[in-house]
């Protein structure tokens, strides 16, 4: 099938379409309501680690001192008269910083901090207390405004993505619930970070492209919207973001031609220009601020030789082992997002049927592989002290696109998604409880993996004789 082919409907789909408006509204209320409740209950009112502390320091400095420098931030230097409540909210001072000249700056991409400075500026303009006086409130609302919103948007986008490609209501609800409760999206919804923001941008981006089916006749607004989202993604992560823009531009070239690419890049340009303008103002460079290792050389720096962005492996074999561990090791991305294994298992089966989303799936796969390879080549620290591999979190977006296509083509595979989601919850919920900045393996991790595998094998054997003849309707 081509990307522009009409969506085939089965008997069950016709029955669903007849009651779509009312059921759709109720489903949306449930999905968004539950995701919002989870985000509101989970947002941390304290600094979880160096990563979010560095971003919070930049937000505070931009609004309260009108500077990108974080030297005077409460999240960087301890005040002598700090109260017990302040010490609870900021137990550790961030060391995720770099020195440019005689000043310290955050080593995180700056645009997200600039965006989050907006709501904090409104709070201060309305007479709200400074972050250093109420750091618990500041941490909570910044976490909710960034990671919480990203989580809700990602869950809603996955639910809508299923509808855009012709998945019926029940599997769509399972997909949204699976992302919400059985993946790394859950723990990373608690604290300020750019990874879940990129997941949200990517999920909405794939939704926009799926609705247009990626055909040459897609209206210009499709490529403009895709460009805005890809440009935003560019600013959120200095590896996965630019790679996503490149992959989507290639997809636009194949499906929409030069005009599509021009529209996409024109819409992305303001975000890209904003990012590089800020890095130029701060460090006099168009390259990422943390690309210069000398900026991490300062008294007490913990980054003596472990910076990402360079080759750190003892030969090719060591690099290959590390690359495999990023996916399948005790901190591996796939083993902490068990529902994705259904998409992986069904990829070959579905691909042989040439689904109309083949081009979009190839775009997502290309982005996923490129990001994984980049992380494998340029790091050796498994993304630091955090839940699984945080750099790969945004890859849940193309993963759930593939999972949605599998469920549309093979409805009987929904049972595997349910089983893997239930077992995945036993990993995601403990990680959520501890917060994202905790690198310890969940107790019973390998037992959960064995239980998930054994359950799927048992179900496969039980259902095999019947599934040869028909697939059950949902």
Brief overview, please?
The chain has 474 residues and is mostly helical. It has helices at 11-18, 20-42, 50-64, 84-89, 110-125, 135-164, 169-181, 194-212, 220-236, 240-283, 316-328, 340-351, 358-378, 396-409, 414-434, 445-467, and strands at residues 97-100, 103-106.
What does this molecule look like?
The chain is mainly α. Strand 1 and strand 2 form a beta hairpin. Helix 2 packs parallel to helix 7 and helix 7 runs antiparallel to helix 14. The longest helix has 44 residues. The chain is globular, with a radius of gyration of 23 Å.
Distinctive features:
474 residues, mainly alpha, two-stranded antiparallel sheet, 2 strands, 2% strand, disordered N terminus, disordered C terminus
User: Low-confidence parts, pLDDT < 50 over ≥5 residues?
Assistant: 1-19, 466-474
Biggest sheet strand order reads: 1-2
Mean pLDDT: 89
Oligomer: single chain
Which outline best applies?
Answer: globular
Look at the helices and sheets and give the structural class. mainly alpha
The number of strands is 2
> Helical region count?
16
The main β sheet shows up as: 2 strands, antiparallel
């Amino acid at each position: 099938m081509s990307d522009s082919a009409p969506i085939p409907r089965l008997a069950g789909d016709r029955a669903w379409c007849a009651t779509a408006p009312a059921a759709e509204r109720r489903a949306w209320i449930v999905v968004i309501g539950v995701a919002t409740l989870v985000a509101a209950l989970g947002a941390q009112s304290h600094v979880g680690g160096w990563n979010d502390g560095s971003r919070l320091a930049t937000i505070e400095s931009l609004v309260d001192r009108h500077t990108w420098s974080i030297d005077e931030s409460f999240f960087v230097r301890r005040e002598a008269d700090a109260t017990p409540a302040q010490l609870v909210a900021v137990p550790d001072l961030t060391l995720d910083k770099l020195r440019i000249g005689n000043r310290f700056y955050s080593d995180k991409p700056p645009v997200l901090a600039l965006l989050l400075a907006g709501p904090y500026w409104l709070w201060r303009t309305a007479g709200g207390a400074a972050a250093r006086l109420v750091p618990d409130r500041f941490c909570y609302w910044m976490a909710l405004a960034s990671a919480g919103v990203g989580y809700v948007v990602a869950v809603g986008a996955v639910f809508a993505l299923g509808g855009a490609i012709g998945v019926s209501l029940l599997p769509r609800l399972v997909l949204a619930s699976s992302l919400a409760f059985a993946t790394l999206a859950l723990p990373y919804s608690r604290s300020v970070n750019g990874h879940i923001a990129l997941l949200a941008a990517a999920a909405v981006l794939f939704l926009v492209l799926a609705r247009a089916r990626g055909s040459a006749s897609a209206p210009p607004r499709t490529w403009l919207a895709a460009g805005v989202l890809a440009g935003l993604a560019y600013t959120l992560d200095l590896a996965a973001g630019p790679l996503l823009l490149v992959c989507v531009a290639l997809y636009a070239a194949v499906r929409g031609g030069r005009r599509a690419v021009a529209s996409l890049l024109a819409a992305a340009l303001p975000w890209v220009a904003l990012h590089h303008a800020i890095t130029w103002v701060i460090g006099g460079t168009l390259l990422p601020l943390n690309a210069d290792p000398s900026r991490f050389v300062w008294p007490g720096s913990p980054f003596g030789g472990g910076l990402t962005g360079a080759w750190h492996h003892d030969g090719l074999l060591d690099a290959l082992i590390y690359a495999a561990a990023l996916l399948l090791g005790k901190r591996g991305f796939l083993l902490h997002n068990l529902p994705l294994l259904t998409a992986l298992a069904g990829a070959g089966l579905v691909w042989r049927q040439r689904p109309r989303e083949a081009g979009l799936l190839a775009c997502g796969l290309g982005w996923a592989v490129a990001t994984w390879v980049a992380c494998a080549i340029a790091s050796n620290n498994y993304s630091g002290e955090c839940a699984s591999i945080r750099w790969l979190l945004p890859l849940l977006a193309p993963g759930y696109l593939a999972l949605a296509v599998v469920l549309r083509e093979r409805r009987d595979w929904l049972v595997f998604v349910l089983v893997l989601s239930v077992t995945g919850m036993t990993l995601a919920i403990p990680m959520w409880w501890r917060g994202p900045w905790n690198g310890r393996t969940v107790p019973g991790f390998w037992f959960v993996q064995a239980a998930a595998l054994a359950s799927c094998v048992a179900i496969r054997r039980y259902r095999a004789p019947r599934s040869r003849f028909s697939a059950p309707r949902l």
